Amino acid sequence: MRRVFRYIPLLCFSAGGLLCGEQSPIPELEEIPAYRLKRNYRPEVTAVRVYEPPKIDGHLDEAVWHSAPMAGPLLQYQPKSYTHLDQQTFFRVAYDDNNLYVAIWCWDTEPNRIVARLMRRDDQLWYDDAINIHLDTFNDLRNSYTFIVNPNGARHDAISTNNANYNSRWDGVWNAKTQINEYGWQVELALPFTTFSFDPESSQWGLNIGRRIRRSDQRGIWSSPRNSVRGYYMSEAGKLNGLSGLKQGMGIELNPYILGKQAVDKDLGTDDFEFEWGGDFRYRITPKISATVSYNTDFAAAENDARQVNLTRFSLFFPEKRRFFLEDAGVFNFGGLGGRFRRRTGTRSTPVILPYFSRRIGLSSAGEVVPLVGAVKLTGRVGDFDVGVIDAVVDANRDMDSQNILVGRVTREIFDQSTIGALFTHGDPNSEYENLLLGTDIQYLTNTFLNNYRLELNGFAVATESGHPNFEGGLAPVFGANAVLPADEFDIEVALMHVDDDFNPATGFAPRTGVRRYYTRLVHKPYIDSKDWLRQMYYTYEGEYITDLSNQRQSSKHLFTPLQLLFESGDTFLMEIESSTDAPVDDFRIYNVAGDDDDVFISVQDYSWTRGIFALKTSSRRKLRFQHDYSFGNFYDGTRMENTSELVYLPSKHFGAELSYSDQDVELSAGDFNIKLASLTTMVNFTPDLTWSTVAQYDNVSDTLGINSRLIWEYRPGARVFLVINQSYLDEVTGFVRKQMDTTLKLSSIFRF
User: Which H helix or E strand runs over 242?
Assistant: First the structure.
């Protein structure tokens, strides 16, 4: 009799909550069925067609959710694979002519401990409790759309290609609402079919749903719950059945904008007002191919770059932030060269080389905006081929006429998840000289290496021909390969690359040429079951060895992590030892103060040095979190000490502040200098659709204070108002004096037919 009563809550939920309300008391679960523990098992769920759509409000008590079959539960994959989450999760799926609807019940025995501090669109929602949904709309086991929602109803979206290239800058048009109650929280989504491409003849999509429980740092997923699998690996996804009669309409999308900009420059004595209009026209030629035409492409609403300190002889890397180039960006990824995520900093490493880098189009090498008269983009799939073409006209600037830039990319599917492809670029956005790039690459992916592991192999070859007088002419090649093997308790990565002296990708990124590079990264990350306070340890070696084309060493770096601890609290502690060498072939300037003649140069010589690094980072689940990095040791022929701190305070979902500060003391035989960087970010979130953020940045090298303030209101899905204010202050003897200010009001909207 006790067993009967034990299942009453679960039976109530399975019946749709008719007897127990919209969210029943938390059901008890039996042992995980054996079939769900099989590595190749892909669960299935059937979507139900409805004729009365649900109201998207987060309340799951409507009739539509009584009829849809239940799926779940989600199983834990971090920190322990194939086990129950501490908190249970189930979901249902429905659809009509216009939308796909998803309802998710996130039970929680302690709803007062749900972490929900963020509300801004496209924020880092994985710092909160969150739900993520991954859809493979062509059921090709390769590509996906991702939708993430936290308990506050904040939204984040992304697209990925070939189970590898995750692009979080993509913005879709969709809606989601949430509710927190005594049994946990629940989310309700409406995903318009016009938001994504799909095969209307297919009745089955790939689907995976994940959940993060932030206070325990547990992650769960519906299909393939093991540590080495990410939700957007659609080869491991479950199956969504029952779809029929889906329509995409006419496949037309209009995204017009109008803006007014007032710009004041005190030094030049100008006060100008500009009115502009333009927009994008997108047409879905077939269900798999789309063409986009952009006129007077505007980047006024893009975020400003974060200030960086460059103590090397190579160019800094700044990521792309402009919507036109970010959409479908995964199609143009090449050779697995996108950089690697660094756990300590939470950022991606600088790519060694990028044959194509969209930021070179419409932005000068100094980061100044160069208007695009117009651009055309074609992306999609033809049979087994993925194609991408961009043709952009860069406006005349300074003493240079307008330039036409052409980029072409094609990949062909081979085996289950692998591809072979080619890349073509023509033109130079910053000069009138001819520039041509041709490249080919092959990527092999499998999730069954040695039965259980994911293996990624990349090989590539690229060549440029440049008419610039600084280059000798003829084809200048680059070729290389890399291999990545991630697993539950270890990661392995190796890479090698050859870069010719005259390699010149005018629409790419190549900070270092005339070199050969050898790279190795080994990580051992065992889970600790014997300690209640300690979850995981990391031991890392990362080595980079670079020579010239005669195999003479130019530089090297060996990074050892003898101790990195991840505590059950979510806090981390790290200790690293870095050993470096450098042999510059020319003197280079390492430090310069604007308007000052006291430059500091590194002379031609062989250098070697060793540094120690300590880092402490508190858990992101905390209302007040802190990170401090301290490094010290030798540097070239002197010493360098760096302190970097970051303080984040999120007292509520409506307000947050982030303060960061970096202080570097460098003493060299050529001179001593100190570099300070400081930034303050404030966020006011009125609703998930109305947010105001302000970023203030200062450095003592330029002695300038820059302030960027952005008010964004999405008054309906896809329709936004931007108010952007940029100010620049110079630190003079009398204090900070405002030199520049521009105010931009922009209205944009998406219309789909």
Answer: none
Structure tokens, 449: 């290496």
Q: Which residues contact 372 (CB under 8 A, 6 or more apart)?
A: 294, 296, 297, 361, 362, 392, 393, 394, 395
Q: Tell me which of 245-249, 368-372, 685-689 is least confident.
A: 368-372
- In sign, the C-alpha dihedral spanning 458, 341, 217, 528 is positive
Q: Where do the domains of the chain lie?
A: 2-241, 314-470+478-513
Task: Please name which of 181, 168, 214 lies closest in space to residue 57, comparing C-alpha atoms.
Answer: 181
Whether the Cβ atoms of residue 429 and residue 361 lie closer than 8 Å to each other: yes
| Terminal CA-CA length for the chain | 58
Tens digits of per-residue pLDDT, 197-221?
888 888 999 999 999 999 999 999 9
Instruction: Please give the pLDDT value at position 349.
Output: 67
pLDDT of residue 595 exceeding 60: no
Q: What per-residue confidence (pLDDT) applies to 702?
A: 85
- For residue 239, the tally of other CB atoms under 10 A from its CB is 16
CB 240 within 8 A of CB 203: no
Q: Report domain 2-241's class.
A: mainly beta
Strand 83-84 versus strand 671-687 pairing type: unpaired
Q: Could you tell me which residues come within 8 angstroms of residue 657 by beta carbon, excluding any fewer than 6 positions away?
A: 648, 649, 680, 681, 682, 683
* Pair of tokens at residue 246: 């889906």
